[in-house]
Amino acid sequence: KGTAYSFAATSNLLQGRLKSEGEVAFSRFELGEDNSPEKxxxxxxxxxGRAWKINLDSEYQWIGRDFxxxxxxxxxxxxxxxxxxxxxxxxxxxxxxxxxxIHDNVNKSPLSSQVTENLLKATFGLMLPAxxxxxxxxxxxxxxxxxxxxxxxxxxxxxxxxxSHLSYDRSTWNASLIPS
Length: 180
Fold this sequence. Notes:
The chain is globular, with a radius of gyration of 21 Å. The protein has strands at 2-13, 18-30, 37-51, 54-63, 79-90, 93-104, 114-126, 133-146, 156-169, 174-177. It has 180 residues and is mainly β. A 10-stranded antiparallel β-sheet has the order 1-2-3-4-5-6-7-8-9-10, with no helix packed on it. The N and C termini lie far apart (44 Å).
């Protein structure tokens, strides 16, 4: 039992070349066995635009540890971070780059460590008319812990992933092969 409120605003300026969104949300729910209310908030700001043939996007978000969303019950809580990205399509080629930095334990609880993740993703695609399209993606994730309680050991994990995507599209059907 509880309540949630959200307030959002958007803008679209310069014939769509500059767009922005902002949202703040509040929640109050009785989740525990003692029916004590848990309340928290979340907010995000997103700014993007188009310059020449390049789409640019950026987003910052903060989600509290006890925040609950009725619209998105599986939302990852207790996180703060930003994402920046750019993508373009030039004739028959596409390129996309993005970088994110997100950490948990936003209230700096001494009972748990704080894990920071840096995520870099690059995709190159080739789309020739009447031929299958081909895309290659490289993703690097670096996770690093800090502020560990005395009972936890620090960790650092780096994961590199390479994947490809081959697809053939027709007006009534398509086929894809996605090895990684």
